[in-house]
Amino acid sequence: MTAGCWNRSVWVVVGCLLGAGEGSGGVETAGSGLRLDQCQVIGTHNSYHVEPGPVMEALIRQNRPEEAEALGYTHRALREQFGVLGVRQIELDVFADPEGGRYAVPRGPMLARARGLSEVPSHDPGGVLRGPGFKVLHVQDIDFLTRNLTFRDALEEIRDWSAANPFHFPIFVMVELKEGAPGPEFTPALPFDEATLAALDAEIREVLPARQRFEPDQLRAGRPTLREAVAGRGWPEVSALLGKVLFAMDNEGAVRERYLSGAPNLEGRAMFVSVDAGHPAAAWMKRNDAVGDFEGIRDLVRQGFLVRTRADVGTVEARRDDGTRRDRALASGAQFVSTDYPEADLRLSSYAVRLPGGVVARANPVSGGHLPVAADLEVLARQTAPIQNAMGEAAHRLRRLAEASEHYRTALELEPPGEGTAEDLGLAGRFAPVLHIHRDEPFGLRDVAVVIHPRRPWIGYHLFWDDDIDFPDDNDPCDHEVIWVECDPGWGRAVAVHTYFHGRILTHRLEGGQRPEVAVEWGKHGSLPLDGTGRLAFEPESLRQHWRRLRETGRRAADHPLGRGWPARFEGGYDSFVTFDRSLGLADRIQETRQVMRSRWPNGVIHRWMLPYNFAVKTRWPEG
Q1: Pairing relationship of beta strands 336-339 and 306-310 according to DSSP bridges
Q2: Which domains, and CATH codes, for the chain?
């Protein structure tokens, strides 16, 4: 029941899930078998774009009337596209600006002023564009209004929304690298050389942690080429990609070839690239003409490739209220159908691009025929025991207990736990650790719940102490700690003890089948394995730090009424703090309470089946 349990992001839960490495273990669940290429979602084109203001629109119209109309669309902020509109593919145009200021003073407003037009309000009052770094805009000097001035800002918005919604359908981010200029009067965009491309990859990885990314190396996963991975194993199931973000370079030609130089299979790269189907790096393709390339798109989709196409171009379809291209794009099977109108612009017409029923993701009309037609695959992909359990843990950490309980219930219906048999009860008692506590330990051990892993020789002993000396105010009536005993495959003897110690897992190998012995930290109950001589097998620096703080400044929230009667501080030296001279055996307690079950989801079974009060979620198992 430490503060750290609640300050960590719900991504901790997802990290546990994605690192579990156990899959569904053959348990058939509602979400099984949904591969990414068998789905279809709506995306947005130039997803950062804000249409030019009236002065710039008038200037553009003086020179190129058709371009003025083509630029007349505005997108919501990225987080609203994801959260409100259900968009799962976006596009960002990126300009290199290593020294800063290259695009800070666009030439268009100066030209407008020279032609007698009104002043153009500053689009960067904070001076962000004067700093170095990659910038996001459409056309330098004339079409520069954007929801995200910098690539980093866009990445941070993606990261933050994803982290707050960690079970979303994977987001596909197309990145177009802008070079050169539309004409001699424009500020020339800098080229993306090898160093700049490497810096772009580095920025993606710096902002989005590995747990939120899915990269080419992960798709290839030991296959010689990406193409062979797609043709053989195929894209991963959506349930394995929930909460992930994929990046893909929009460019073809010289920039793409520079990116592939030295990495023809995109080894070590952060982004996928659009190449021909026969290329070793073939995994996704850009095919923007959904009408003229309709059959070609369908053929690529049948081969398992991802394809992006466009439902509309240059605002034409919205102005005409013409859904012909949109309907062909959706029927083509392209997994990502991009639009400027995920919602209608009623100034023009009711034209919009949505999936039937307003779902986020649907079965692909070409490759997903075996999937439920009307289902929202973002929802369906979550219907596996691992995902539902992780969602339960995420809600539980946020103290949304009714929501947590429902997810746990679903997980345990999909993968039912085993009620402890007489044999399980015997194993739990036989390998139960002996606890050694300080003679002045202020709290009692309220409950013990034992969860045995159904597939590995592990027993989790979940200990619920009356409270934590530092947290009288957290409204949980206990302090949850865990000790895991690992046995040999035949359950003949204990081979290791693993303990939870304030976010760390300490592992001590046992010799000669000895019974595990564990010391319990005064007041805070961090668990520390003892070696065969009764001494601490580990002595983390944080143990001494806790003693020093508890002795010198005392416990936190010392005046809180729920801590009335608790010791204000530890009285004694460090040697006393690490003297554990009272023994507490668990075997008799376990035999008396019979709180033993088998499940991969200990937090779920304890919440639903074993304890009548709330507790802090802790790590499920000591590894994978």
Answers
A1: parallel
A2: 30-380 (3.20.20.190), 417-610 (no CATH)
